[in-house]
Amino acid sequence: MPWAAWPGWRASDGEQATAADGRQRIAALVASLDRMSIVTHYRRPLSGRDFRLLWFGSSVSLVGDGMTFVALAWLVLAQPGGTARLGLLAVCHTLPVFVGGLLAGPVLDRFDKRHVLAADSVIRGAAMAAVPVMAAVGEVP
What we know:
Strand content: under 5%
Distance between the termini: 50 Å
Order of helices and strands: HHHHH
Mean pLDDT: 79
Number of strands: 0
Radius of gyration: 24 Å
């Protein structure tokens, strides 16, 4: 995006705006903001209860997903030939997100979003609960 296209931006004396001009403008803008206004700006969306619950739940879920992948990677690496199977784990961990993303639109259009989210959470929970059970039994593929 050319710097001259920013609203209110004018190059001096009819000159072409350059990247350096844009960087100077950004530096001046950042310098003009005080710390409290930035904190207030980011806290404003969290003042709504529904959004705060959604944000907190999503954050916990993302942290859990990351911890799950690390735990599964350790489990795979602990097995014989684990380094070769780590790539397969990455594909198996990522492929459902990609395919599910393509199919989510029609499913969410047809059914109530809360029920789909609840069903998704139950299925994911059952799948994750099966991993330590299968590891204890010794049947982890």
